[in-house]
């Protein structure tokens, strides 16, 4: 039973009241209309933990927020490759939101990591749209399972912080569809977020907040979104244009400015009141959905959520290298040297609107000492200062070398200082601070057993220094219990199972967007097209330090018995995940001596699709937990949409029949088994138009016949012999038929091409 009679309310509300409803009240609330019983609801960040600001607050993370569990950031969560775990994180965040009376959580953020330089990459899941979409959907399902809404953000193509409120991302249609929109489409279709947050930037010159195609034609009409579109905080440039484009709620409050412009536009006949009514109906619909959340203050179980944060962080840690199986540290540990300020002062989250006030915070030094007790001597030296211009680098270095000398193992905690990455600005390089690398090299010179633990929100280059480390653990920004999880992994209590959701390149100059990023004069050209992340490195066959999907374990896994079968292979392009598909099965065995989890990855490359095309793309993944010696069957279904590419000519997904290379492996560059699957069927024909070439006419099943007949019976006699020679065809095949017709003079007759097009449509 609906609580509000929306139609009656739309009648009853004045234009003034309606205009006030489509703009917020303060920073975090919707506007209430007490006269008609419409209450206000509260929204809060954020993606990896609640940031509820008491009072009116601010949105840039300056003010304090109520304590909440700080879960691993999205950069870490992406590496878990674990759908169920991410859903559980969502459920816990939803529960905390509900306990605070927060109706909508402003997340998840699923923008693609176009470049490691983006200052906000720590808030995003991956460089790959499938992984971002699947994990983003899991977060939405988890949060919304608690009766709390989500805000899928930042829609769309918000891949940098530089000039983020104005920058125009210049992206072609195929790249938009295949890379930047695909994750959003999946989450909208599969998880139905209550709200979508439009981004600050422009896309091909149009503000996302004012883009009718984006907010209405694509999001609602094509993908079936039935929720509310909210602006990013301050993203509305022209409130009237935004409303007309499909934006429902401007946030935060514009202190009456937006509503006044909307009223004036209606009064002047420039805006149809029905457009306002539609947005008002959606605002009331959201309020209605959120009402059961109310103003509750039911406590949540802080211990249980901290334990979950620790479990999750353990699943996100990526073991990049482990020479001589130096990890896990087991038996006779002797004396351990712990070097690096981050071991004492953890970097566990990023700065800006996602910044959580954690309920508690663990550090690796303390966690290690507690776990090892007094049997093992743990000797700490900070080694370097973090964001500390006063630090005496030489003295810190000397102290670190002293601690490392004679230690049985040295654990070096390196990472990016908070000043390097944040919402609001981008990095300019991908290096660790030089003083940290200097300390590592000096420690290595006096000790043979060195383990590096990294804390950073986006990829850092390892090429220069990895030689100094026997093992490297990428711990990302692991949330409030991240340090405990690192200790769990170091000591083997947890077998690492994180896999890279983003490539670690050798150098910045290798990265896909290099030379095009961050643009200039408020315009950034996405010149690399669909070749983002591993799609780029594989296309140009360039070495990387650690590939997408990579991560070691303390055990080993074998892949066998790959079976690939095409089902209903008729070559028909289908709709969203239609009937046509490739079924894949394989056996995975834990061939080592420890229990462990493997992330089985499925990649597909369309061998016969038009170039340029990616060599392989992630089309499925599954995390399996296996005891030593245990085997399991893993199956995947690759739907027709997954096999299709976007055609800018037909403005649609096209499944090109032909051969597909289906590969399974432990990373994008550790393919263990491959097979070829062939989808049979006619090549999809492109619609013919006035610019279609002779070859396209000859490729078109109907066009070919119509053209042939017209040439055979032309006023100047039979012209078909000109089609008989391969040599002639290769010369003139690329000519639009209209141009050939002109060159043939009257031979084909006046208006011949238009007549042919009419004949084709008539059939
Ligand atoms: C951010 C959003 C955030 C909002 C509210 C904006 O600056 O881009 O991600 O949800 O502020 O804090």
3D structure, described in words:
It is a single chain. The protein is an alpha/beta fold and 763 residues long. It is built from 23 helices and 24 strands. Strands 9-14-13-12-10-11 form a six-stranded mixed β-sheet, with helices on both faces. The protein is globular. Helix content is 30%, strand content 18%. A hairpin with a 4-residue loop joins strand 21 (645-647) and strand 22. It folds into four domains: 29-55 and 64-295, TIM Barrel (Alpha-Beta Barrel); 306-544, Glycoside hydrolase family 3 C-terminal domain (Rossmann fold, 3-Layer(aba) Sandwich); 557-679, Immunoglobulins (Immunoglobulin-like, Sandwich), CATH 2.60.40.10; 694-762, no CATH class. The model has no long low-confidence stretch (mean pLDDT 95). The structure holds beta-D-glucopyranose. The site of beta-D-glucopyranose has 7 residues, from loops.
| Small molecules bound | beta-D-glucopyranose
List segments where confidence is low: pLDDT < 50 over at least 5 consecutive residues.
Answer: none
**Name of the CATH architecture of the largest domain:** Alpha-Beta Barrel
Helicity, in percent?
25-40%
Based on CA atoms alone, the radius of gyration comes out at 29 Å
Write the CATH fold name of the largest domain: TIM Barrel
